[in-house]
Amino acid sequence: MKVRIGAIIAVLVASLALVTMATGATADKNYGAIVTDTAGLNDRSFNFLANKGRLRAQKELGMTTRAFISKTTSDYLQNLAAAAQDAGDGGIVIANGFLLGADLNTAAVQFPDTNFAIVDFSQSFLADKPGNALGLTFKSEESGYLVGYLAGLVAKQKGGRQVISAVGGQKLPSVDNWIAGYRAGALRANKKIKVLIAYSGQFPPSAAPKCKEIALNHIARGSQAVFQVAGGCGLGALDAAKQKKVWGIGVDADQAYLGAHILTSGVKRVDTAVYSAFKASKAGTLKTGSDLVFNLKNGGQDVGKISNKVPKGFVTQMNALKPLIISGKIKIPSKL
Questions:
Q1: Opening angle at CA 251, ends 245 and 256, nearest 5
Q2: Which residues does 328 contact at the CB level (< 8 Å), separation at least 6?
Q3: Share of the chain above pLDDT 90, in %
């Protein structure tokens, strides 16, 4: 069955390529599309942010844009191929997330005159390293370090068992860099802190009960703060934090809207990355075959709203770390 499905997809991609060649698609630098992962467009996290960047480009740049929503992983390649056909020569198609890497590589090879970009995946990691692809990568360990530092301080202040935790989605480089920074920052603030780490294996909101179960287990083992790095699934971890009256830490988007139990959020500006790629594509200045890197220095990484229950002195201490990170005086691990 898997072989048959793969053959069908291959035929689809080849057919779309032939249609594009036959119709002589013209350059359209005013077109941009995003292809989501399976967490849904309104996951209040990764896809939500990518769509926010798309809508900004549509409004501010006057671009024609479209979101292709993937319900299953088998939709990735079909959506990328369909988006590429719409984009024609010179348009841009952005795959939203590490899990789309293999399919983005296939689509970029099949449609060499369309620009592609992928969030959280270096162009150099693509199997064929297509010259028409761009990586949109993030130094998420920088924001992770800052929120971990804050979590370490509040745990020390409260006393008791010096434990915090992180609930990841799948064990991917773009998840682990968050957690690696989080653990390092917590240890800088609190040498006695223990960081519990576990993965749900999933990202969609439908998996939230699994993330909640993991977080409840961590809290039972003493965790005073739960950092969710699992997209929509991670909302379950934050719900567990609320239920057990411990701190929750959001990811990607500023998730302070969830309630007073949110300590802060590690913010990854996927919306800025998507908008920047669309803008460069329209201007004709997009440099594919490489990566755009987003970090604290250029505003691609940040910390969200901080609870007003946190002592101002703690916030001052955390903010004092930012210039040290930006200058490279603080070296932050990106791997666990």
A1: 55
A2: none
A3: 87
Grouping H, G, I as helix, E, B as strand and the rest as coil, residue 288 is coil
CB 181 within 8 A of CB 332: yes
DSSP string, 315-332: HHHHHTHHHHHHHTSS--
pLDDT of residue 13: 45
Q: Give me the CATH number covering residue 172.
A: 3.40.50.2300
Element (H, E) at 126: none
- Regarding beta strands 92-95 and 64-68, do their DSSP bridges make them parallel or antiparallel, or are they unpaired? unpaired
Pull the structure tokens for residue 71: 């319900």
**Counted domains in the chain:** 2
Question: Which residues partner with 65 through β-bridges?
Answer: 32
Residue 308 and residue 147: Cα distance in Å, rounded? 15
Residue 117 confidence class, pLDDT cut points 50, 70, 90? very high
Is 114 within 8 Å of 31 (Cβ atoms)? no
Are the C-beta atoms of residues 247 and 125 closer than 8 Å to each other? no
At 146-158, the pLDDT tens digits run 999 999 999 999 9
User: Are 153 and 239 members of one domain?
Assistant: yes
Residue type, 114: T
Q: What does the pLDDT look like over 29-78, one tens digit per residue?
A: 899 999 999 988 988 888 999 999 999 999 999 999 999 999 999 999 99
Give the orientation angle of helix 2-23 with respect to helix 75-87, to 10 degrees: 0
259 contacts 232 by C-beta, under 8 angstroms? no
Question: CA angle at residue 15 from 278 to 129, to 5 degrees?
Answer: 50
Closest CA to 205 of 237, 169, 233: 233
Name the residue range of residue 54's domain.
Answer: 2-138+271-294
177 and 277 belong to one structural domain: no
Nearest CA-CA partner of 134 in 279, 302, 334, 298: 279
Cα 112 from Cα 329, distance rounded (Å): 41
Contact 265, 304 (CB under 8 A): yes
Q: Do 70 and 104 sit in the same domain of this protein? A: yes
